[in-house]
Amino acid sequence: MARSYKDMLAEADALVTSVSVDEMAGRFRDESIVMVDIRDPRELEREGMIPGAFHAPRGMLEFWIDPESPYHRPRFAEARTYVFYCASGWRSLLATRLAQDMGLEARNLREGFSGWQKAGLPVGEKPAGRR
């Protein structure tokens, strides 16, 4: 029988370290951390993103993280902690698990961008770019 998305989320949640919006509020500009927004570009245009975050579409993560891939992004080769986020924390939970499996020091922003906005934290208008 196929696994449901709920099974996949529960499995990832057991293996991934998540951080709260409160924990990241004072650390999102820390040079040792890279905030990674995996939301769709339309979401970014509509809602903005965390200032300084790096946009990496969820569908390209495997290719951007792997240094052997022709699509590799050097940003993922830096010795930093990567904090992945989406709107609510579900997509980023799965993305964080993938990133950890691929060898990154990765965390999931538990409440996602929605929680970030609800907390009244800074929001930028445009992606910082694909560095």
UniProtKB/TrEMBL annotation:
A Pfam family the protein falls into: Rhodanese
Alphabetically ordered keywords of this record: Transferase
GO molecular function: thiosulfate-cyanide sulfurtransferase activity
Signal sequence residues: none
This protein's record includes keyword Transferase: yes
Domain Rhodanese: 29-125
Keyword Transferase carried by entry: yes
InterPro entries according to UniProt: Rhodanese-like_dom, Rhodanese-like_dom_sf
Coiled-coil region list: none
Name of the featured protein: Rhodanese
